[in-house]
Amino acid sequence: MRREKDEIQADRQTVYREETKIAQELHNLRDELARTEHNLRSIIGKVILNGLDSVRKVIETFRGRYGPDCDIVQGYHGTLIELIDCPETFYTSVEVTAGSRLFYHVVQTDKQVIRIISEINKHNLPGEVHFLPINRLHAGESQYPETNVGAYFY
Questions:
Q1: Would the pLDDT of 42 be above 90?
Q2: Which stretch is the leader sequence (predicted)?
Q3: Domain 45-138, architecture per CATH
Q4: Which residues, at least 6 apart from 74, have a Cβ–Cβ distance to it below 8 Å?
Q5: 139: helix, coil or strand?
Q6: Is residue 105 packed enough to be buried (19+ CB in 10 Å), middle (13-18) or exposed (0-12)?
Q7: Is the pLDDT of residue 151 over 70?
Q8: Alpha-carbon gap, residue 146 to 114, rounded angstroms
Q9: Are the beta carbons of 33 and 109 closer than 8 angstroms?
Q10: What percent of the chain has pLDDT over 90?
């Protein structure tokens, strides 16, 4: 009986140490997130970040009101920067090429844009918001050269 009690106390102490360790990691991650958000705010500007926050609030409002299967929630894909996945070595190239468009919101249809903007205006939410409705995006066909003649590679 005594041995079982000692084992249980040892297990309890182990769990407590793990809990403390995880709580510290969570605290560190929250601090890092706060620093990163602060840096992001200083880089891209308050107006765009307010717009990001406003759209997130609206999406959460629709999710709470109509559930996760709502067409607005299902049709909202996130910002372009959240959707792009590339090796870290290309980050600068992507940032320079896309610029502030990285913070455009990608949605399935322009009807979803209208509903989101209406909700933003209804609640007087702050920020500047831009959308890329997929149903309105049309990529033209590109003509690429068939040979490398005259091409310079660095």
A1: no
A2: none
A3: Up-down Bundle (1.20)
A4: 68, 108
A5: coil
A6: buried
A7: no
A8: 43
A9: no
A10: 62
